[in-house]
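Open question from group meeting: does this chain pack into something compact, or does most of it stay loose? Before anyone orders reagents, we agreed to write out a predicted structure and look at it together. Recording both the input and the output here so the notebook holds the full record.
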Amino acid sequence: MAVYICGFVLSCLFIKISESYKKNRILKSIFASIAIVIPCLIAGLRFYTIGTDTRGYIKPMFNFALNTENYIRYLNLSWQGANGIRHIDSFEKAFSLLVFVIASITKNFHLLLFVIHLLILVPIYSGLKKFKSLNNSKWLAMLIFYFMFFNVSLNIVRQYIGIAIVFWGTSCLLNDQKGKLKFFISIAIACLFHNSSILGLVIYFIYLMIGYNKNEKKVVVKISQYRFSLNTLVVMFLIIFSVLIINNASWIAKILDILNMGYYGNYINGDVHFVLSSIIELLPIAVLFLLCGKKFIKKYENSYFLIINYVLNYLIIQLSSINPYASRIGYIFSIFNMVLFTEIINTFDKKISKAIVLFLLVIYLFTFWYYNFVYLGRNETIPYVFYNKLL
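C-alpha cells returned:
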C-alpha cells in the first residue's frame, strides 16, 4: 500500500515542479518525465500476480513469445486459462505484437510491464497538457487518475491503453483546430489494442451534439414559459435516453454485438437496479456541483461535454448490479473525471474555499481508493509485491 501512496505523491510533486518552470522547457520536460517514470516503475517492478489479467494472459503470452521463433506461429498458440482455452490470435494484434517484440528482443517481462504503462501514462499526460484550463493543475488531474484509475490499469491493461489513446485523441478534438483527424486516428490505433475503444465514436457524437460551445453560439429553446439552452436539453435527452436503454439491457447487448463487442453483452443479462455504493460515491461530487455548477458551466466551454461523460459513466455503473464486469463499458467515459473534478476545484476563486474543497477532495479520493482496492481487493493489486528474479 505504501508503495502506491509514495509513488502517487512523488509523481504529482514532480509534475507540480514541472509546472513551475514556465520558460525553461528542458527542466520542465525533465521533471515531467521523472513524474511519468515513477508510476511506470511501480507497474514494471511488480510481481506477475499483481493485477488479475497480468497472470491471466500477459505472463502466459510472454512465456510463449520467448519460445516461438516467428510471430505467425506465435498467433496460433493457445493455453488453458482459468475460464477456458485462451487463443493468442483472439487478442488484438497490436498488443500481441508488442508482447512478442519485447519478449524476442529483451526477454524481460518487467520491461514489458513498464512499456505497457508508458503507453497508458504518456497519452494521458499529453492529453491533459492540451487543456488550457488545467494550467498549473495537471498535478491534481494526475492525482485523480492515480487514486481512481491506476490500480485498475494494472489489471485491464489492454483496455486502458485504448482508453489512454482515445483520451489523447479527444483532447485534440476539443482543443486543436485540426483535432478531428487526430481523434479518428487515435480511435483506429486504440482499437488495435482493445476493440472496446470503438465506443470513442460515442464521444464524437456527444461532441457534435454540443458543438455550439466550440462555435461560441448560444442557442436557446423556449418551451412554454421556460427557456433552455440547447446544451441543457441535450444533457436531459441523453440522461433520459440512457436510463431507458439501461433499463432494457437487452438493447445494449444487441448494440454491443453490432460493434463486435458481444462478450460485454454476456455481462448484462438480467434486471438493473441502482447500486448503493455508486450513489454514495456520487454524493460528494454532486454536492460540489450544487455549490458551483452554474459558475462551472459558464467558465469552461467543455463543461457540458464533461458532465455528459460523467452521467453516462454513472448510469453504466448501474449495470454492475447484473454483473460487476459490466461497468467496464463506461471506463472510456469515466477517464474524463480527471478534467471534470479538477475544473470544478478551479471554479472556486477564494484561496481558503479552494484549499478546503481540495482537502476534502483528497480525502474523498483516498477513501475511494482504500475502499475499492484495499478493503474490497478489486483488481488484485494490493498488497503490492516486488518481483523476485529467482521465481
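Observations to bring back to the group:
Residues 2-380 form one domain.
The mean pLDDT is 85.
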